[in-house]
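Support request, please re-run this one:
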Amino acid sequence: MKNKPNPAIISLIAIAVLGVITTSVVIAKQTTSEETTSNNSTESIDDTAVEQTEESSDSTYQDGDYSATGSYSTPGGQESITLSLTIEDDIITQVNAVGSASRGDSAQYQSAFLSGYKSSVVGKDIKTVKLSRVAGSSLTSTGFNRAIEKIKDEAING
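Re-run finished. Output below.
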């Protein structure tokens, strides 16, 4: 009579083989992932160097006085804010904003924004100025940022 293979031993061998295969796949993926991360890091360093070179060049924006209006939506309707600012060597040296809100919460939030935004803008590079919330007002910032973008478009060197 022939000996039949023990099913338990066959199962253990199959599990061991699957374990070896799985481990090999995981190691291969980790190695590939590390190589990709290493390559991406190199690319990021190269990109950063290019950006720094570009930023260290001459001014991007024409010096001068600019004005623009940015609108934004509130629960009470459409509002706007008008900016007047001076740019010298890409730095905002002066800024003045006037709001149009005249009713309820919109007027209150816009007034709070207008009383607190200058320290976040004056002396800053126009390329980096983007406001999110000033003195509790977040919607007015949207209008402000839209006006800044219009000024950037107007002031950009050809």
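The two ends are 94 Å apart (CA to CA). The first strand starts at residue 64 and ends at 74.
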